Amino acid sequence: MNASHALPHPVFCTVVPPHLLRKAAQSPDSARADAALRTLEHDSGLRERRQVNALRGIAPSLVDAPAEGPARTVYDAQHRTRLPGRRVRAEGSEPVKDATVNRAYAGLGATYELFRQGFGRHSIDDSGLALDASVHYGEDYNNAFWDGRQMVFGDGDGDLFLDFTVSIDVIGHELTHGVTQYTANLTYSGQSGALNESMSDVFGSLIKQYSLDQTADQADWLIGAGLLGPNVTGVALRSMKAPGTAYDDDELGKDPQPATMDDYVNTSRDNGGVHINSGIPNHAFYVAATELGGKAWERAGQIWYDTLTGGQLASNAKFTDFARLSTAAAAARYGEGGAEHLALQKAWSVVGVPLAG
């Protein structure tokens, strides 16, 4: 039976989970604690505002989109929080002196290219939605987010986090929240919220792999590699290959992501653990992609895209729903009993998600 989706509603989705910032806010280092607390408080306010604005529908893009090709515009927020800021680079213009602006511009383009060339999708909404981004947001702002209309990047505080444009998968992650917003419209809580986060990690990783022309075995399968500051013990925000191993820091604690349902975390925080339990479907994708080998976006990514956009995935879907539908999508596109179908069956078995609810 087809899933019936309400009109797409924008949600406020950050790449750094609240649980990590809460840990940092308890640091005995007052500068570190203050920076984390400011980010937490700011994010909380934005999240409340987004819930109110959602009632008004999706805001239009800031500029008109062309019939073909990307329409990128990068703005400089100039360390303020009023968006979008001053326009500093538009589609087709030459690089500027600010490396942050150029990285944002390139990341928007890489995201557009994967969805266009890999899946035939014309921008985030499949109708040429312009891709807008604001950089240098706030003072020492330790996050990046999709606000339902555009990307926003903080510079980090130089201690916990560096400039949020340094990881192309972070850019792809946040823009993929927009793709989800316009397709399955997954509710941002519980397992559907964890699936929402996982979709962004999956396609964020694929965008990095596509831009580097990597095969599944060449990829690092890390989200946010190079983003952690010099005083943090870790390699990234999350690992799809080995959830729970991305960082292990004296103050920030250990990466809490589970790899299988045996360690599923029941919590009321973070919208029911959307940034934590996303490790389970993340790992399922990693298993499927490495089982199939080659370029991960070509088969495993296509199956995930088919599932996300196929109209069968309900907005309140559980892990078992996505497992069943993705396995069926593999059989529909590549044949029942084929390598792709078998890889999906293995992937969901490895993480302990049954194909029948």
Please provide a written account of the structure.
- The chain contains 10 helices and 10 strands.
- It has 357 residues and is an alpha+beta fold.
- The strands form 3 sheets. The protein has a 6-stranded mixed beta sheet with strand order 1-5-6-4-2-3, covered by helices on one side. Strands 7-8 form a two-stranded antiparallel ribbon. A two-stranded antiparallel sheet has the order 9-10.
- Strand 9 and strand 10 form a beta hairpin.
- Helix 1 packs antiparallel against helix 2, helix 3 crosses helix 5 and helix 8 packs across helix 9.
- It is globular.
- The relative contact order is 0.12.
Considering the chains and any ligands shown, give keywords for the structure.
disordered N terminus, alpha+beta, 357 residues, six-stranded mixed sheet, two-stranded antiparallel sheet, 10 helices
Euclidean distance between termini CA atoms: 15 Å
SS elements, strand count: 10
Q: What structural category characterises the helix and strand content?
A: alpha+beta
* Rough outline: globular
**What value does the average pLDDT take?**
91
Radius of gyration, whole Å = 19 Å
Give unreliable regions as ranges: 1-7, 51-62
Helix count?
Answer: 10
Helix content: 40-55%
Q: Into which percentage range does the β-strand content fall?
A: 5-15%
Q: What is the secondary structure topology, with strand pairs?
A:
Elements: E1 13-14, H1 18-25, H2 30-53, E2 72-76, E3 86-90, H3 99-119, E4 131-137, E5 144-146, E6 151-154, H4 168-182, H5 190-212, E7 222-223, E8 238-239, E9 248-249, E10 253-254, H6 270-273, H7 279-292, H8 300-309, H9 319-334, H10 339-350
Parallel strand pairs: 2-4, 4-6
Antiparallel strand pairs: 1-5, 2-3, 5-6, 7-8, 9-10
Helix pairs in contact: 1-2, 3-4, 3-5, 4-5, 5-7, 7-10, 8-9, 9-10
